[in-house]
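Appendix B, Record 12. Input sequence as logged:
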Amino acid sequence: MIDAKEPPDLLVMDLEMPRGDGLETLEWLEARLPPLPVVIHAFLSEHPRHYAIENAAAVVEKEGDTNRLKTVVLEVLRRYYPERFGSSACGPNIQA
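Logged structural output:
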């Protein structure tokens, strides 16, 4: 559950979930106010393209090395919270 008093800055999620549907969760998160940037980290070949995936802040294919995921998370944080990084630029969604 996301705490409204102290919401997270970003959510990294897999679309495979033990209970529920990752796409439904992603749709719910997109409707949330204030918006919560979501980085999808999944085996994308297992999931057909879905508009909710297209609207995620970033999509990173799962692989053995997590360095790409860490880089993308930092890029998304910089894009959504530029004041924390001394920048005001907002870029397009990141596909990795």
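The radius of gyration is 13 Å.
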